[in-house]
Amino acid sequence: MKLFLVLALALLGAVSAHQLHEGAPEQEVPAEQGKEEPREPEPPCPTERESFRVIVPGQGGCNYRYMLVTDCRTFENAKDTCARCYRGQLASIHSSLINQRLSCMVRTRTNRSQVWIGGYTSGWHHCLRAYWVDRSSWNYSNWARGNPCRTGKTCVAMCPSGGQWRSVSCGARMPFICEY
Fold first, then answer.
1. Which whole number is the average pLDDT over 146-174?
2. Domain 48-179: which CATH number of 3.40.50.720, 3.30.70.100, 3.10.100.10, 3.40.50.410
3. Side-chain-side CA neighbours of residue 20 (13 Å)
């Protein structure tokens, strides 16, 4: 009976005998529509052991909520994780008080020398511009000596030891701070 079914389906072109025998469903192979770069698979959301919530009191009764994730990721992957897992973005820092509190939090929770924050730079020499990923105004900075790097696009990392910022290759993997 199985042979008859295989023969009938093969004649109709619905499935090959090999696919039926192997139990594999028929799959269409899409035509190439231009080659895309293979995207790194999305890692799972950080576990409770890999993340720490912090609330920083602001002025006028407004609180800022942050998540330090100790799992190391690239800048783009960290940015995606903040959006997907916490419905937020990499942290933008607009005051020395917030910068100081975040660097203190990072220093007590990780032994890493740098963590991603939500800034990046773009341009060359005199045309260098700094941006926050949340598109808020760039009204505060705490660059380390010799920074920011003045060539091309770089991403911004905070050094927990003093809270100073450095230009780093966006492909580097490090912990990160989300704001949500």
1. 94
2. 3.10.100.10
3. 14
